[in-house]
Amino acid sequence: MSRFIVRRFLSVIPTLFIIVTLSFFLIRLAPGGPFSGEKKLPPEIMANIMRKYHMDEPLVKQYFRYMGDVLQFDLGPSYRYKDQTVNDLIGNAFPVSVMLGTMALGTALLLGTIVGITSALKQNKWQDYAAMSVAVLGISVPAFVVGPILMLIFALKLKWLPTSGWLSSRAGALTLIMPIITLMMPYFAYIARMSRGSLIEVMRSDYVRTARAKGLKESVVIRKHVLKGAMLPIVTYLGPAFSGIITGSVVVEQIFVIPGIGRIFVQSALNRDYTVIMGDVIVYSIILIAANFVVDILYGLLDPRISYK
Amino acid sequence: MTDDVILQVKDLKAYFKLDEGLLKAVDGVSFDLRKGETLGIVGESGSGKSVTNLAIMRLIPSPPGHIAGGEVVFMGDDILKMSDDGIRKIRGNKISMIFQDPMTCLNPFLKISTQMIETIVLHQGLDKKAAKEKAVDMLKLAGIPAPEKRIDQYPHQFSGGMRQRVMIAMALSCEPEILIADEPTTALDVTIQAQILELINELSERLGTAVILITHSLGVVAGMCDSICVMYAGRIVERGTADEIFSDPRHPYTQGLIKSVPRLDKVSTQRLYSIPGQPPNVINLPDCCPFFPRCERAMDVCKTKYPKVAELGDKRTVACWLYGEGK
């Protein structure tokens, strides 16, 4: 197991290297640049700016300069937010997104499995139909609809919750509720549908019939023989879901004015703020790789048929 | 004779409601099982053998299936009328089951020890340590080498034959009155098949367990069973001792089955016999003899009415218009 972890860990290095290299050149292929604003700058000033950010050098030289900085954990200065480095920008925004994403995914996982299990146990009864209708809604209604509707009802009409803001604002933890609900909806719905399907499949399997033939109570059969096997697909889904929920929080962050990384990502792409885009790409890649890595390890712990050498 | 009957199945019916119509998987099956007896239930795929036995254990997946009638009297009580708690005290304890495919019948996520101990603790009230000792003993009886070590392994670390041995050890660990073996050797290698049958035979004799052996192979029943029920399209078409069935088969279906077994004692250059046609679709089956389209001796009456069951002697019955009143 520990050898597997070390080997997997080492394999991250070339993966990241390829991602960074590709994105470095790809974003520079896109038309425009960080300083092609509406107002044309005089060529002398432009040349000065270019020199300051070493953008007058050949691309390959720029690449090696950037890689050298990255290896020292310096993601460079932002081209648009002049007083901030990329490390600052991401350092402030990333924890916000991770916190929001983790809470949303945690809630989605908890509610999703509860609803999924209930549906499976009450298959084709009204509880099942109700839960699965909610799930279809959750998957098909996008965040930019759910968010404003929640805001309209709970903030403007009922005045129970603040419309927007983040922890530091006066409303405190109450600001978390609506963003978490909006963000978790599709994940909750997906997990509910997936756990229902997987549970029903396992409940029909031969080994569960064996367990019933042994005289075990249905509750014991479910707890001891069904759940573990049925939850494996959910664990697999959690890896991509975790990185997806952090990247996918852009809309929610925009609606509820949350200072997260999603907003920075979108703005940097629109602004061609090269260093910030690169920083985002690196951070997202690490999250995705790390999440899948954790899932692989969990899988090895949950399923005795999988062993890592 | 009747007082050592431990299981009496009377007119058992199990139906499945499907979109295509009502599937009468088991339609009026009756038989007795005596203490220590080995009963073979033979029939083609889809003839209702497995469903009959799942119905005895009340394990038919519902919906779509349900038990539509009949009685299953086990030691004086009707299993079909018992409470859920009542039937659970019988399952795995008084009546155990082993299934066709040992590769999928053990839980891949749990150690063999966990799976065996839970049954013993549940039914015999032993503590875990004593239950584990008992489980190791059972594995040893079932011919698993180094059971003390093997018991802490997972199912995927066992071969198919070994897994079926584990299933047998698990099923017999509470010394049940009846062991239902649902095609226990179908999924196994030919060489392993004989060993597994031998093991079932040996252990059931030792523990005094009656066995219901479900199979589609006449060769399997010939060597092991005291009496035989032949099933066709959800009903028992012929019943008798193994000797009677093999030396004097009465139903044209049974005769066909026996003719289609390859013989070693007669050198023959002829093609092996096979019953013409396909087994019937039992959905919305009309009230006729379901075998008549394939029967060489079919008469007009066979097409309009299901034959009365003719009693030909003690425990010897045949459902065919050639015998009894309809003759």
Question: What do you see in this structure?
Answer:
The complex is a heterodimer of chains A (309) and B (327). Chain A is mostly helical and 309 residues long. Chain A has helices spanning 2-29, 43-52, 59-71, 86-121, 126-140, 143-157, 174-203, 206-213, 218-247, 250-255, 261-271, 274-302. The longest helix of chain A is centred in the middle third of the chain and has 36 residues, at 86-121. The mean pLDDT of chain A is 87. Chain B is built from eleven helices and twelve strands. Chain B has helices spanning 49-56, 84-90, 102-105, 112-124, 128-141, 147-150, 160-172, 190-207, 218-224, 242-247, 252-259, and strands spanning 5-18, 21-34, 38-42, 65-74, 77-78, 95-98, 178-182, 210-215, 227-232, 235-241, 309-313, 316-319. Chain B is globular, with a radius of gyration of 21 Å.
Descriptors:
heterodimer, A: 309 residues, mainly alpha, flat, B: 327 residues, alpha/beta, eight-stranded mixed β-sheet, four-stranded antiparallel β-sheet, 11 helices, 12 strands, globular
Task: Furnish the topology, listing elements before pairings.
The complex is a heterodimer of chains A (309) and B (327).
Chain A: H1 2-29, H2 43-52, H3 59-71, H4 86-121, H5 126-140, H6 143-157, H7 174-203, H8 206-213, H9 218-247, H10 250-255, H11 261-271, H12 274-302
Helix pairs in contact in A: 1-12, 4-5, 4-7, 4-9, 4-12, 5-7, 6-7, 7-9, 8-9, 9-12, 11-12
Chain B: E1 5-18, E2 21-34, E3 38-42, H1 49-56, E4 65-74, E5 77-78, H2 84-90, E6 95-98, H3 102-105, H4 112-124, H5 128-141, H6 147-150, H7 160-172, E7 178-182, H8 190-207, E8 210-215, H9 218-224, E9 227-232, E10 235-241, H10 242-247, H11 252-259, E11 309-313, E12 316-319
Parallel strand pairs in B: 3-8, 3-9, 6-7, 7-8
Antiparallel strand pairs in B: 1-2, 1-4, 4-5, 9-10, 10-12, 11-12
